[in-house]
Amino acid sequence: MESDATRAHYERLADRFDENWDYSPEFVSWMTENLIKRLNLTPGKSRLLDVGSGTGLYARGMVEHTAVAVCTDLSPAMLEQLPTDDRLVPLVASAEDLAAGLVRPPGDGYNAILMKEVVHHLGDPEQVLVGLSRLLRPGGRILVAMLPSTIDYPLFSAALDLFRERQPSPDSIAAAMNRAGLQTELTYDEFPLIFTVERYTQMVRNRYMSLLASFNDAELEAGVSEIRRKHPGPEVRFPDRFAFVLGVKA
Asked: Which residues does 107 contact at the CB level (< 8 Å), separation at least 6?
């Protein structure tokens, strides 16, 4: 993982991270329901490890369907935003540290492990998946929720080009899960998003995607100008399409 750069980006973003999605609580509910369904969570029984949980934007809803949700992240500032709830357990750790056993999460194994929009930060996704699968109980599930290789976001051209350069393919993650000995399924789903242009360009300025941390303020302003030229109306509308790569331990 790009540990230093990634940590610094999310430390800067922590106090306003959730603001980016306050505009669309429907999206958060939709995504949370997708994660609960695919992870087959059971209220009062499931033990969930949310790797790269950030502020717990999705763990807050998922915890109602678990016994405990251990929320791990590189950024202490992100974890400080977790709601006060004994079932939400913060743990400062990277995916690599967890996979290598350098940081051991509490308990004796997990029924469900989630990595939502984390895999593109990993240097060796297969090694991480192998290591994390050891934390699963028999029949446990690991879910990678990720963007596909190309996206229809109303971003500026340089950002879209950089995304295509960096984003791993869902097929490659599914293949890595298979090699890790997991029974694997790849599915897609999408949610229609609508933002005012003002709101969306402010999210871009806030670097709501870690990708945007690669651009300085002047480059972002040039990008915002490009977005406004391409979208002269009051709103931007686009499908937020996700790949869900599910692995089940025998």
From this structure: 47, 68, 70
Strands 235-248 and 183-196: antiparallel
Residue type (1 letter), 15: D
What number of other Cβ atoms are within 10 A of residue 113's Cβ? 27
Q: Which DSSP category does 232 fall into?
A: -
The Cα 144–Cα 92 span in angstroms is: 20
pLDDT at 1 over 80: no
| Structural domains present in the chain | 3-152+166-194+239-248 (3.40.50.150)
pLDDT score, position 14: 44
The C-alpha atoms of residue 12 and residue 72 are separated, in whole angstroms, by 18
pLDDT for 154-190, tens place per residue? Answer: 999 999 999 999 999 999 999 999 999 999 999 999 9
Between CA 167 and CA 40 the distance in angstroms is 27
pLDDT tens per residue across span 72-123: 999 999 999 999 999 999 999 999 999 999 999 999 999 999 999 999 999 9
Classify residue 173 by burial, with Cβ atoms within 10 Å: 0-12, 13-18, 19+: buried
CA distance 83 to 115: 20
Distance CA 124, CA 39 (A): 23
Classify residue 199 by burial, with Cβ atoms within 10 Å: 0-12, 13-18, 19+: middle
CA-to-CA distance for 69 and 45, rounded, in angstroms?
11
Averaged confidence pLDDT in the chain: 92
CA 195 to chain CA centroid, nearest Å: 20
Q: What is the H or E stretch that residue 136 is in?
A: strand 136-146
